TrEMBL record:
This is Methylated-DNA--protein-cysteine methyltransferase. Keywords: Cytoplasm, DNA damage, DNA repair, DNA-binding, Metal-binding, Methyltransferase, Phosphoprotein, Transferase, Zinc. Its EC number is 2.1.1.63. The lineage of its organism: Bacteria, Bacillati, Actinomycetota, Actinomycetes, Kitasatosporales. One of its GO terms (biological process) is methylation. GO terms for molecular function: DNA binding; metal ion binding; methylated-DNA-[protein]-cysteine S-methyltransferase activity. The active site is at 164 (nucleophile). Its cofactor is Zn(2+). This enzyme catalyzes only one turnover and therefore is not strictly catalytic. According to one definition, an enzyme is a biocatalyst that acts repeatedly and over many reaction cycles.
Amino acid sequence: MTNREHGPGPAAAPDAAPETGRPPRRDWAWTRVGAPIGPLLLAATREGLVQVVFHADERVTRRALTRLEGAFGGPPLPELPHLATAADELDRYFSGELHAFTVPLDWSLSGGFNARVLHVLADGVPYGSVVGYQDLADRVGEPGAARAVGAAMGSNPLPVVVPCHRVVASDGGIGGFGGGLEAKRLLLALEGVLPAPLF
C-alpha cells in the first residue's frame, strides 16, 4: 500500500470531559493506509487491531480519532506492534497474497449480540466464500434475527479483517455494506466470488 501515515496527527479535538468522567487510559495508536477501496484508518491497542475505518479522508480521520481518544482515555502513541502487522497483512491481502489474517483483534468496541455474530463470521466464513444473513442468524442460534445480523454487520468495527463483505442477501443480491457497494464488489471480486470489474 502507499501513502502510509502514522498518528498522532492530525490532532483530535481535546476531550473536555472532567478527569473523573474519563475512561481508564489504554495505550493505542493509529495509521492511515492507501487501499484499492480508498484510504483506511487503522487503530490498534496492545491487545490487537481495534478498528478499521473506511474513506479515511481528513474529516473522517479527525472524527474517528476524537471517538478513539474518548474510548481509550487519551491521545495515541506514535506506534504499536499490532498496527504494523495489520498494515502489512492488509497490503498482502489487497495484492492477493494473503487469504487469512493473523493479526490479533481487540474486540472491545463491539459487544453483545453484535460481537457474537462477528465472532462467528470471523471464525466460520473463510476467504472466497459467502454467507447469507439468515444463515448467519442460524449459526448464532437466533433463526429469527436476520435483520439484526444486518445491523451487526453495520456495527462491525473491523471491516475487511472481520469480513462483513462476505455476508450477502438470500435473493442473490450482494446486500449492504458500510464501505459502499462498490467497495463490497471489489472485495468480493478480489476473493474470486464475483467477476472482476471490467473498468
